[in-house]
């Protein structure tokens, strides 16, 4: 008789391979849905595009669409950048000043994005700023990012995330981020967002000289 497997056994390498393949397939499906949605929005407008049309273009069912994106708004506003940025912040040397660490973390996070991903981000940002139905969702996303950054910087400094110092730092950084995004959209992506944001954070780090 074979012995029962322990629930806490170390995963077999083949288990990890299967999981990795499954995650890659899910990421590809998610990316395809978003790409087709953005294409349809550009061709026929956000309001005129239905979830059913997006699902058909992505060759998935509407129920599959909703497994990845709970609403049509989410296909524009959702992304996976916050976890990447959080990991990059935690990887910075502890002796770096807060703004220097954040600036380096943003550089690292952007390095994980290729040109196509930046193009999709530009398209999503344009939609988010021009479609009234998306603006409220963007506000929710900003609050989530602010909370994430506050938690990460408070953890790094051993401070309370609600302290005035942490909130002032995160508020200033988010202001710089929004200004960079607006410039990026106005320029239609002519200057890459990583360059705009790094330059703006440099001004902030230097005390905002004008």
Automatic annotation (TrEMBL):
GO terms for molecular function: DNA-binding transcription factor activity; transcription cis-regulatory region binding. Keywords: DNA-binding, Membrane, Transcription, Transcription regulation, Transmembrane, Transmembrane helix. Residues 50-69 bind DNA. The chain crosses the membrane at residues 165-185. Residues 27-87 form the HTH tetR-type domain. It comes from the Bacteria. Residues 1-15 have a biased composition (Basic and acidic residues). Residues 1-26 are annotated as: Disordered. This is TetR family transcriptional regulator.
């Amino acid at each position: 008789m074979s012995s029962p497997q322990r629930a806490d056994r170390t995963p077999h390498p083949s288990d990890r391979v299967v999981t990795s393949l499954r995650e890659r397939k899910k990421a590809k499906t998610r990316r395809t849905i978003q790409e087709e949605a953005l294409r349809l929005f550009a061709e026929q407008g956000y309001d005129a595009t239905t979830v059913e049309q997006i699902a058909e273009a992505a060759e998935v069912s509407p129920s599959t669409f909703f497994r990845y994106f709970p609403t049509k708004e989410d296909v524009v506003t959702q992304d996976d950048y916050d976890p990447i940025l959080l990991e990059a912040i935690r990887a910075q040397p502890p002796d770096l000043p807060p703004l220097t660490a954040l600036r380096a973390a943003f550089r690292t996070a952007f390095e994980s994005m290729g040109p196509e991903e930046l193009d999709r981000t530009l398209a999503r940002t344009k939609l988010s700023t021009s479609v009234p139905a998306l603006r409220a969702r963007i506000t929710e996303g900003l609050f989530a990012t602010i909370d994430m950054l506050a938690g990460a910087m408070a953890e790094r400094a051993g401070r309370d995330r609600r302290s005035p110092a942490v909130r002032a730092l995160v508020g200033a950084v988010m202001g710089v981020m929004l200004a960079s995004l607006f410039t990026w959209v106005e320029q239609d992506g002519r200057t890459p967002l990583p360059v705009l944001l790094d330059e703006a954070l440099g001004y902030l780090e230097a005390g905002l000289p004008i």
